[in-house]
Design goal:
alpha+beta; about 40% helix; 4 domains; about 15% strand; six-stranded mixed β-sheet; Peptidase_M16_C; about 950 residues; Cytochrome Bc1 Complex, Chain A, domain 1; 31 helices; MPP/UQCRC_Complex
Length: about 950
């Protein structure tokens, strides 16, 4: 997995912070949020004799522990011709080591109830796990063995297999994705040849294919010493005991080579460079301008970050007002600064509407920048941005994992575990003059790299005087799954002698799993409240949920509710979109209106002290939406543009068409949630008003989690409830149609696809069905993430895919069980055969050991189920929607533990009958249709039916 920046910041919103000092707010004016005067992360740091720096922080709010290892080595430590090594090594490091059996890193940790993953970016690599506290010693065993004792175990077969996995990741994220090559084009032309940022993090496929064992061992020796790493441990730990354990497990790892820090290497562009690229998957033209800026921790970094938000981060910004509102060239705009360890980039990114000439977009951008230069920084916007940072700050450390990552990365890259505190202070100190200064210094009249990515055959939309960008593109071939790989035999090696016994440690005491205390209330109008009080951070998350979803729409009005909820985000009767956005931001809050098939909701994050003024804004958004023609047309246009963009996304195509095959196009569950181009284009403002009236007539429930007492919440919500009717559901749910596509195979052509998206499934049961839990439990071993059989075989054993999983979504009507994966194109037939056989054999082969694995995995994973406010909110939603008890998690665990192996078999036989499965493949017809036909014939499934991207039959 790849990441782009070492301090991940606001990207981790939603990630519990015991060990975090609460802060007293300073005086503030009514309706505004003011940054806290004090914010402190509590931690203890020490260094082992081998140079490993260790950060410990106690958080006993949940019986879990997060362990994070950061290696100060990313793609900037690679050599030309050996690009992608840092990311590739991250993958290799999840395999076996001298004392940890093969596959345990990926398979055992989820089975212990944990989560694990890693990431690589330009400057570093991170590995992390969150586990129930009883598995803490086992994680120290695995992580220390990975850091110090894995390289001797690497075999040629394992190397070859992992090459295929990484190449599949590149195909999925880059080669088979719209605008996927943009980063390669920019880096190759912004940075001089040989600069550590002149190649992408994932590197090139030829470089990966050429990688040798000696290359891998050299990279490990050069970069993976403990003296080039930070270890953070956050959670339910004892400090003295944990120090001793860390010294035992990590202390004997030999010190590595001294890794010299890279000095800043900012680049200077002397001339503007323009490039265009015909994108096989893009349906919309996109323009990016990239300017060289500064490295992270540079004094100008914070001002550049805020400059991006000022220029394009709100509806009051110069770019939004000019490009989106006045010139109507794009549905949205973006600008951001990305400062990495040794250099930085400031980017303008504008994905235009279909058919828009990017020269017009560029001209509009220049007009917007001239407006900014003339008007300067809006004081209210700057105030809003600073106010929002307090909520962002708390969210960044709101879980043990989020806090652990901040501590480890701050220590490794800024020399300060609590660098997040410094960041917060710097943001509050930025002035309008600072922002204008960096604009003049790095953007105004400065040359940039300009990239025009346009749909295939639409070169005329690219910027004038652009040169064709050159990228290496893999050729799609027909035939068998060549490059056949496997893990091979376990390598022979001489085990490193250590004083400390590195055998697998036992589990600790099993942590008790207990649901948080849940309170319920009912308002005078019948509106129900479900809440969990939690004071770990001074935040409140809540939602207002309406029972009316898209299910109630007439076919001709498909997408009306989705469009209405977007419109409700765009202002109120008394506030324009920009004014509403500013009012929300000044409170440090976030409000979003969204719709689903069975409900719609307004979801809110706010500082606890600003709960009531934020609720006032929510009330205004619900009762007084801005039904003005100009706003409506802009939002509708943006929706149509988004629908057009999805036409190039193979996974989005597969998701929608599969629903259509299961439910039929005439059924609400088979229609696109956001509607079609035709249905949305026909919607009117009157349709919005009708949809709004229906929404207000539905049943309303409020879920609330955070730092607010039940009585305070009820008191604040009482006036709000009085203004809502809390009606009844105004539509009857339609029956599920007969399954007419059972046992059939369908194919959708997306020419040039480097991967095939495979979906296999059939209708099963609703969440309210008596056997729904048992089906979920039964599925866990087959498709429950990377430790499931699909992931273990298709990725770990075969190297055909980056990931594969299966499951049943939640819903009050029957839902499909489906298995999904994206495999390299020439492994399509082989993957279909493997998945077919695994589904067929799953029930008959399921045994007692499988049942025990499922029980341990599911039960222990629940220790992480209630940690964040978002997770608590999700728990409340399940209780209210499906009429579950306040201790439903414990009840489901009891149900699982009492489930005999024969019942697992019965569930598989009843709901996972392969002969009744519908198969859908989205891929390159020229090379893959014939192999799929062969698969269908050999499987007795008849002729393959070809569909277009909208699910209509293609007449041949």
């Amino acid at each position: 997995m790849m990441k782009s920046k070492w301090l991940l910041g606001a990207a981790f919103i939603g990630l519990s912070a015991a060990g975090l000092n609460g802060c007293n707010a300073t005086e503030k004016t009514e309706g505004e949020s003011v940054s806290t005067s004090e914010f402190k992360l509590q931690y203890e740091k020490f260094t082992l004799d081998n140079g490993l720096e260790v950060i410990l922080s106690v958080d006993k709010s949940d019986p879990i522990v997060a362990v994070t290892t950061v290696i100060h080595s990313g793609s900037n430590r690679e050599k030309p011709g050996r690009t992608g090594f840092a990311h590739f090594f991250e993958h290799m490091a999840f395999n076996d080591s001298e004392n940890v059996p093969r596959g345990w890193n990926r398979k055992a940790i989820p089975e212990w109830g944990g989560q694990r993953n890693g990431g690589t970016w330009s400057d570093g690599t991170i590995y992390y796990e969150v586990v129930p506290k009883d598995a803490f010693d086992k994680i120290l065993w695995i992580d220390s063995d990975r850091l110090g004792y894995m390289i001797n175990t690497v075999t040629q077969a394992a190397l070859d297999r992992e090459k295929q996995v990484v190449k599949n990741e590149k195909r999925e994220r880059v080669d088979n994705a719209a605008y996927g090559y943009t980063g390669e084009v920019i880096r190759k032309n912004l940075y001089p040849e040989g600069h550590p940022y002149s190649w992408t993090v994932i590197g090139s496929l030829p470089d990966l294919q050429a990688a040798t064992l000696s290359d891998l061992k050299e990279f490990y020796a050069d970069n993976y010493g403990p003296n080039n790493a930070t270890l953070s441990i956050v959670g339910d730990i004892d400090l003295a005991e944990t120090k001793q354990k860390v010294k035992q497990w990590f202390g004997e790892i030999p010190r590595g080579k001294d890794v010299e820090p890279l000095p800043p290497m900012p680049v200077i562009l002397n001339t503007e460079k323009r490039f265009y690229f015909e994108d096989n998957f893009a349906k919309l033209p996109e323009l990016r301008l990239t300017f060289p800026t500064v490295e992270s921790t540079h004094k100008d970094e914070t001002a550049l970050m805020i400059l991006g938000q000022i220029l394009a981060g709100s509806k009051n910004s110069a770019l939004f007002r000019q490009i989106v509102e006045r010139d109507k060239l794009a549905p949205s705009v973006g600008a951001y600064n990305n400062s990495m360890e040794i250099a930085g980039e400031f980017v303008f990114r504008i994905r235009a509407k279909a058919g828009v000439d990017l020269d017009a977009v560029y001209e509009s951008l220049q007009t917007a920048l001239a407006t900014f230069e003339a008007n300067g920084v809006d004081a209210k916007d700057l105030q809003r941005i600073k106010a929002e940072q307090e909520t962002i700050l708390y969210n960044r450390v709101a879980t043990v994992l989020g806090k652990g990552r901040q501590l480890a990365q701050g220590n490794e890259f800024a020399g300060n575990p609590a660098y997040v505190e410094t960041e917060a202070k710097m943001i509050q100190e930025v002035t309008a003059e600072d922002i204008q200064s960096v604009y003049i210094k790095y953007i105004k009249n400065r040359p940039s790299i300009m990239t025009s990515f346009v749909p295939k055959g639409q070169v005329d939309l690219a910027l004038e005087e652009s040169e064709r960008a050159r990228v290496w593109i893999e050729e799609v071939t027909e035939g068998k799954a060549n490059e056949e790989v496997s893990s091979g035999e376990i390598g022979e090696f001489e085990k490193t002698l250590t004083k400390f016994d590195r055998s697998e440690p036992p589990f600790g005491d099993l942590p008790l799993i207990q649901m948080p205390q849940i309170w319920q209330a009912e308002m005078n109008n019948g509106m129900k409240l479900f809440g969990i009080e939690n004071d770990e951070t001074p935040l409140v998350n809540f939602d207002v949920t309406f029972s009316g979803g898209s299910w109630g729409e007439a076919p001709s009005k498909s997408g009306a509710l989705a469009l209405l909820t977007r419109l409700m985000n765009e202002g109120t009767k008394t506030k324009t979109a920009a004014e509403l956005e500013q009012s929300i931001g000044l409170l440090g809050s976030g409000i979003d209106v969204s719709s689903g098939r069975e409900e719609s909701r307004i979801t809110v994050t706010t500082l606890a002290r600003n709960f009531e003024p934020t609720l006032k804004l929510v009330e205004e958004m619900i009762l007084q939406p801005r039904f003005e023609a100009e706003e409506f047309e802009r939002v509708k246009s943006a929706t149509l543009t988004a629908l057009k963009g999805r036409e190039g996304n193979s996974r989005a195509i597969a998701g929608q068409v599969f629903n259509q095959l299961i439910y039929s196009e005439s059924h609400p569950m088979g229609r696109p949630l956001s509607g079609s181009q035709a249905s949305v284009a026909a919607l009117t403002l009157d349709d919005m008003k009708a949809a709004h009236a229906a929404l207000l007539s539905s049943q309303i429930t409020v879920h609330i989690a955070g730092d607010i007492a039940p009585i305070a919440a009820q008191t604040a919500l009482a006036p709000f409830a009085e203004k809502l009717s809390n009606g009844v559901i105004g539509y009857k749910k339609e029956d599920i149609p007969d399954q007419v596509n059972e046992g059939k195979v369908f194919f959708i052509d997306v020419p040039g696809s480097k991967q095939s998206v495979i979906t296999i499934g059939k209708l099963s049961v609703a969440t309210t069905h008596p056997e729904a839990n048992k089906l979920d439990f039964t599925n866990e071993k087959l498709g429950g993430g990377i430790s499931g059989d699909f992931g273990q075989v298709l990725r770990i054993e075969k190297g055909y895919t980056y990931g594969a999983s299966s499951g049943v979504p939640g819903g009050t009507v029957a839902q499909p069980w489906r298995a999904r994966t994206s495999v390299r194109a020439n492994a399509t037939k082989a993957s279909l055969e493997i998945m077919r056989d695994m589904i067929r054999d799953y029930g008959p082969s399921f045994d007692e050991s499988d049942a025990e694995i499922v029980k341990q995995k599911v039960v222990k994973a629940k220790t992480r189920a209630f940690e964040s406010l978002g997770a608590k909110l999700g728990t409340l939603r399940v209780i209210s929607k499906y009429n579950k008890s306040n201790r439903y998690v414990e009840e489901e665990q009891e149900e699982l533990l009492a489930m005999p192996v024969q019942e697992f078999k019965n569930m598989a036989e009843k709901y996972l009958d392969e002969s009744k499965m519908t198969y859908l493949i989205v891929g390159d017809k020229a090379t893959q249709f014939s192999p799929v036909q062969t698969f269908a014939a050999e499987s007795g499934k008849g002729d393959v039916v070809e569909l277009d991207i909208f699910g209509d039959i293609v007449e041949n």
